[in-house]
Amino acid sequence: MTDFQSIDQLVGEAIKNNVFPGASLLVGYQGRIVFENIYGDAQSTPVKRPLEKTHFFDIASLTKPLATATLFILAVQEKLIGTKDLVSQFFSSGTLQGTTLENLLNHTSGLPDWKPYFKNINQPYPEQIIQQVLQEPLINPVGSTCIYSDLGYILLGDILEKIYSTKLDVLFSQKIAAPLGLSDTFYQPLHQKIITDESRFVATENCPWRHKILVGEVMDDNAWAMGGVAGHAGLFSTAGDLYKWIMELRRAQVGKSSLIQRNIFDAFTEVKKDRDLNLRCFTLGFDTPSLPSSSGHHFSVQSLGHLGYSGTSFWWDRDKDLAVILLTNRVHPDRHNEGIKKFRPQFHDAIIKALGLTTD
Questions:
Q1: Structural domains of the chain in order of their starting residue, each with its CATH number
Q2: 167-208 pLDDT, tens per residue?
Q3: Both ends of the chain: CA-CA distance in Å?
Q4: What is the pTM of this model?
Q5: Which among 310, 359, 326 has a CA at the least distance from the CA of 58?
Q6: How far apart, in whole angstroms, are the C-alpha atoms of residue 234 and residue 219?
Q7: To which H or E segment does residue 225 belong?
Q8: Residue (of 158, 96, 88) closest to 125 by Cα position
Q9: DSSP letter at 159?
Q10: Number of C-beta neighbours around residue 300 at 10 A
Q11: CA–CA gap between residue 128 and residue 154 (Å, rounded)
């Protein structure tokens, strides 16, 4: 019997040291859940609410692989689009001439990481955000360097809406959440929230410009400016639902998924064997371990993962058949606490040790 007492202790110490108020974690190994637990509080101020397993987390940039990249996999399967298609096919103007969808998906478009577009908008206006991204000067030549960029995924979300003539939140619900039974994963459009009971959500920051603690409302500033629904952020979810999705990816890689074709999945998740581990590298939608990595010291180069600014992450080691999901509210009550950067690798190393999977 694997002893995860060390994990309980590690997470408990992190809460005590104010790394985050609360955490939900799940460990899957060889296709089954071997450990899951919740710790601490969903909200610590102005009222304290203990975290519950069913609470929804703002998963921030985990939206990129879970919604946007997965929807692109399906669009390619349906032959509606190709990863080598030019971005200019979808937009009449902009600086992205010669840029492909692949460049946006793997963060080699040359776009900067982030811009505070929300500051120029008094109320949600998605089209204005899109136009600002399209006029953004590139900081690197297309295809030359990997620079993680929210901006590329803002465009990808809009492209999906153009392809399907359907809003992104509806696409996700119909094409991913419903088939996979992800009943706890959804966007919260500002004009018509799916769930209005704030007690079911984990709190994020005390927003300096919305002048309130955010509960059940997307934290990401630019996602808010797009109405709460965007390709780079906006989803709410639970550890259990994220695990269901990862298990579908696990089936896809052996040709047993009812949703995702193996050849398309392989193309989106190929990790080059000769890659430089000192450089950050993305597949088409997924992060991979680099040095140093939030996944610690023992996840293989074939691992796929992603981080969310709100304090969320998943790492799936395909070689070890291991999935680790860590959801926290490290941005509550403010975003300036960065203790999680030190915690994440320690946490993943401890999981590997608890399972007896260390190689040294």
A1: 5-354 (3.40.710.10)
A2: 999 999 999 999 999 999 999 999 999 999 999 999 999 999
A3: 22
A4: 0.97
A5: 310
A6: 8
A7: helix 221-225
A8: 158
A9: H
A10: 15
A11: 12
